[in-house]
Amino acid sequence: MGVLSTCCRCSLAIAAVPLAVIASVFMETPTVLVLPADGSVAVAFDGSVGVVPPMEPVESSSAAAVEEFGKASVEGFGTGNMFDRIAFVYDVTNKWMSLGLDQYWRKTMVQECMRLEAGDRVLDLATGTADVSLLVGEQLKGLGSTGQVVLGLDPSVEMLRRGVSKAEDKSLSSTVRLVKGDAQDLSSVQDVTAEGVVSDPHGGVETGSIDKISMSFGIRNVPDRPKAFREMKRVLKSPSSNVCILEFSLPDGEKFLSKVAKFFITNVVPFIGRIATGNTGSKEYEYLERSILKFPRPVDFAASMTREGLRVKTITSFAYGAVHLYAASPVASETA
Hints:
The chain is α/β, with parallel strands linked by helices. The protein is built from 10 helices and 12 strands. The radius of gyration is 21 Å and the shape is globular.
């Protein structure tokens, strides 16, 4: 009995090692890169390499992205239809895949990047099941804001109807409005009910009507990102407005814990997706893993935002480079 007990303790200790390593990856202190005001971007988070000028525009980059995602959309990958298929496990798998830290990253974005004020009108793109929209709604309601001051937009009806139910449960329906729409064209939207009833298209987001924009883990799935950035700039009120984007990226794998984070994304994420969906959503979660592999380096992504008039001021790195928070503001339009 004593031998078995000792063996069990040893087995648990061995199993705890990789779990402790994975936990440490996601619990490290975030690092913040402050980008120069002239638009140049640093090539290392520790500042040891210096800065490089912004990338020159590459006309084929967005076209290539559209072509790539266009092929994928034939099967529905990256579209609202894909997320409709995995909506039933989306919230649960997010928690499993991030070891529960997805909510921490979202709260950090809301509290430290968006800097909400009473009276703000907020647009939450790729709202999914409305986690960020509800966080923002609660905070604005606490600040004394009245009316539907939060607009959560997503292409997936199944995700949205779950978000509508969550808003009703939290008594935030009068504060948060959830609609079906496209981040690349905000000119029209469709309302969605908790039962999944979708209205006819109607007026979307007006020019200069939004104070703050958030987007968490959704920009990877936008075919024409520059177009979405231009739409964000169009609807923002002023250069003092904030744009806050959370997104995954592939860690460089140069350091040990960075390698662990990279392994987690490329192996554990699709495995969890298969288990959570009973293998019915394995292709969808494999797509999500591939979309992370193809996502630009943080500095390149920041440069692409800046080129479209959204100057990135800081990039905060979480989980040894697995997650980044981009804080930007619109550049004032030049007048003739």
